[in-house]
């Protein structure tokens, strides 16, 4: 069932955008979000984080709209914290990915909507992957673990840089039904997998449909490569000042440096919306 039609939709990334490293929201941003909501704008979050690290921020801000988590792999209700939609990776695909990660000596992590299940080799990267969720369980053999099989929404492999190219080639041959994003992180090379067609843009399209908001009345803010699909989807998009140049090039606007960036984006968008 669709939600009542909303006036407009505003979505913000979390890390590097809406919150600082302590998950704090700047007072100017908090005030601007409250004003926008009072004016009939639905404010939501679109993040790579799992639900367990997203809901606390939504609760803090009083957001009750559907939230985009796991880079679009999960839509969760901000009010009830119930999972509304899950676009899982097929278990067989996860098994093939994990097999190659093990063969190449990479650390392996399988994400459900709220928790991370990792291999013993991955202990050194727990501080890094905790950016997605603080709920991390180590398994002697994550490939054979049963707990993640009911709905894996993301897989992350962390490989030494000297093994990364070999791993990329091997994965290209076996991981055919997923979207792969490769980037440097944690002092190594990170490979992030979600189901094919899953991204923040498709997740926000789902949220907009539920709310009855046309994409022409949607605005987003982000700072990284996984934000580009929602930049492409929304009518207006703001990149943070510190975003990589290739990310800024995909946004319709680039914010000036300084605190209160969300407030500046909201003010500029709402002034032009009506």
What does the model show?
Mean pLDDT is about 95; it is low at about 1-5. The protein is of the alpha/beta class. A 6-stranded mixed beta sheet has the order 8-7-6-9-11-10. The chain has a 5-stranded parallel beta sheet with strand order 2-1-12-13-14. It has a 3-stranded antiparallel beta sheet with strand order 3-4-5, with helices on both faces. The protein has helices at about 25-40, 50-60, 90-105, 125-130, 160-175, 200-210, 230-235, 245-250, 260-274; strands at about 10, 40-45, 65-70, 75, 85, 105-110, 115-120, 135-140, 155-160, 180-185, 190-195, 220, 235-240, 255. The chain has 2 domains: about 10-85 and about 200-274, HAD superfamily/HAD-like (Rossmann fold), CATH 3.40.50; about 90-195, Hypothetical Protein, Haloacid Dehalogenase-like Hydrolase, Chain: A, domain 2 (2-Layer Sandwich), CATH 3.30.1240. α1 runs parallel beside α9 and α3 runs antiparallel to α5. It is built from 9 helices and 14 strands. It starts with 7 loop residues before the first strand and ends with a helix.
Per-chain topology:
Elements lengths: L7 E5 L14 H12 L2 E5 L5 H11 L4 E4 L4 E4 L5 E4 L4 H13 L3 E5 L4 E4 L6 H4 L6 E4 L14 E6 L1 H14 L3 E8 L2 E8 L4 H12 L6 E5 L5 H6 L2 E4 L5 H4 L4 E2 L6 H13 L1
Parallel strand pairs: 1-2, 1-12, 7-8, 12-13, 13-14
Antiparallel strand pairs: 3-4, 4-5, 6-7, 6-9, 9-11, 10-11
Helix pairs in contact: 1-9, 3-5
């Amino acid at each position: 069932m669709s939600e009542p039609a909303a006036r407009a939709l505003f979505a913000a990334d979390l890390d590097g955008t809406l919150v600082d490293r302590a998950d704090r929201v700047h007072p100017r941003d908090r005030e601007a979000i409250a004003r926008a909501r009072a004016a009939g704008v639905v404010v939501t979050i679109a993040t790579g984080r799992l639900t367990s690290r997203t809901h606390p921020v939504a609760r803090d801000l009083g957001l009750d709209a559907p939230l985009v988590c796991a880079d679009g792999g999960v839509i969760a209700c901000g009010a009830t914290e119930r999972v509304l939609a899950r676009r899982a990776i097929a278990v067989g695909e996860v098994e093939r990915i994990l097999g190659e990660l093990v063969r190449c000596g990479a650390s392996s992590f399988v994400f459900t909507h709220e928790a991370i299940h990792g291999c013993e080799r991955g202990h050194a990267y727990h501080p890094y992957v905790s950016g997605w969720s603080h709920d991390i369980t180590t398994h002697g053999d994550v490939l054979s673990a049963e707990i993640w099989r009911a709905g894996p929404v993301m897989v992350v492999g962390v490989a030494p840089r000297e093994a990364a190219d070999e791993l990329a080639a091997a994965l290209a041959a076996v991981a055919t039904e997923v979207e792969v994003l490769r980037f440097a992180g944690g002092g190594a090379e990170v490979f992030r997998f979600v189901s094919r067609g899953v991204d923040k843009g498709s997740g926000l399209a789902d949220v907009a449909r539920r709310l009855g908001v046309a994409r022409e009345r949607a605005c987003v803010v982000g700072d990284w490569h996984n934000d580009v699909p929602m930049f492409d989807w929304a009518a207006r998009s703001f990149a943070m000042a510190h975003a990589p140049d290739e990310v800024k090039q995909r946004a319709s606007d680039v914010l000036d440096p300084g605190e209160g960036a969300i407030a500046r984006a909201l003010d500029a968008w709402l002034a032009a919306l009506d």
